[in-house]
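Tokens in:
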């Protein structure tokens, strides 16, 4: 039996990445996307998405961020963050700005300067429900 080629390694542990701003890359402007995007380079501007934004080791992000989920695995984010679902800041990451989300996970050893606001998750419309009169 011939050996099978190794499957492509998922660097984020989150599944398929739709776009990558790699090390040595710089971008300025509005980043709007669907799905998952990873930044390992330099980004300045604003981010708007219902998807997942992952910041990797080399990330230098100066932006206000509104996403479904933000995962800071490394690098530095300077700016305020609003997430509809989750914010994770891992030990190698740094966030300088206010953050708001229903679920927030800040690892021991990371750098965080700002205020934390725990917000209620957006309500899903319930089918068949009627308002109480």
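Residues out:
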């Amino acid at each position: 039996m011939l050996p099978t080629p190794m499957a492509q390694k998922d660097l984020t542990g989150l599944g398929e990445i739709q776009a990558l701003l790699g090390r040595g890359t710089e971008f300025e402007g509005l980043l709007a996307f669907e799905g998952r995007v990873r930044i390992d380079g330099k980004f300045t501007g604003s981010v708007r998405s219902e998807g997942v934004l992952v910041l990797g080791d080399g990330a230098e992000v100066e932006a206000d961020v509104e996403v479904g989920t933000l995962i800071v695995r490394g690098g530095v984010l300077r700016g305020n963050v609003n997430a509809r679902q989750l914010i994770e800041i891992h030990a190698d990451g740094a966030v300088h700005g206010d953050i708001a989300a229903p679920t927030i996970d800040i690892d021991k050893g990371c750098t965080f300067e700002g205020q934390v606001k725990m917000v209620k998750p957006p309500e899903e419309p319930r089918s068949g429900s009627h308002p109480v009169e």
